[in-house]
Amino acid sequence: LDIAPGEFVAVLGPNGAGKTSLLRILLGQSHLSAGTVEVNGDDLHHIPSRRRAMSMAVVGQEEQPSAELTVAEAVGLGRTPYRSAWSTGSSDDKTVVDRA
C-alpha cells in the first residue's frame, strides 16, 4: 500500500478483514508479526509518537468528545503535537485551523 502526500484513503472490508488491526498498527498500538510499515522511508515503530502524530491522525467512529466541540476546536486538536507542553497555541495554529 502506497499513499501519496495529501491523498485521502478509505479502508473498507467485511468484519474480520483486518481494518482495525491495520489502524492499530499505524497508531503504534500493535506490532506486526512480519514485514514493515514505513512512513516517508522510516520504520513506523522507530518514529517517536509525537512525530508520528504529526503525519497521521484517526478519529474513531464511536468516539465521543467530553464536550461539544466546534469544527475549529476539533481541527485545533490536530495541532497538539506541534505545541510544547502546556502551550495554549499560537498564531500559527490559528492560521492552520482557519485555512483548514
Short description:
The chain has 100 residues and is mainly α.
Descriptive report:
With 100 residues, this protein is mainly alpha-helical. Helix content is 31%, strand content 4%. Helix 3 crosses helix 4. The protein is globular and about 45 Å long.
Protein traits:
100 residues, mainly alpha, two-stranded antiparallel ribbon, 4 helices, 2 strands, 31% helix, 4% strand
Ordered list of secondary-structure elements with their pairings:
Elements: H1 19-26, E1 38-39, E2 42-43, H2 49-55, H3 71-77, H4 91-99
Antiparallel strand pairs: 1-2
Helix pairs in contact: 3-4
Note the overall shape: globular
Class from secondary-structure proportions: mainly alpha
The proportion of residues in beta strands is under 5%
Biggest sheet: strands, sense, closure? Answer: 2 strands, antiparallel
Look at the structure and give the mean pLDDT.
85
The H-and-E topology, N to C, reads as HEEHHH
Count of helical stretches: 4
* Strands, total number: 2
Roughly how much helix do the residues carry, as a percent range?
25-40%
- List low-confidence stretches: none
How many angstroms separate the termini?
26 Å
Q: What value does the Rg take, in angstroms? A: 16 Å
Strand order of the largest sheet: 1-2
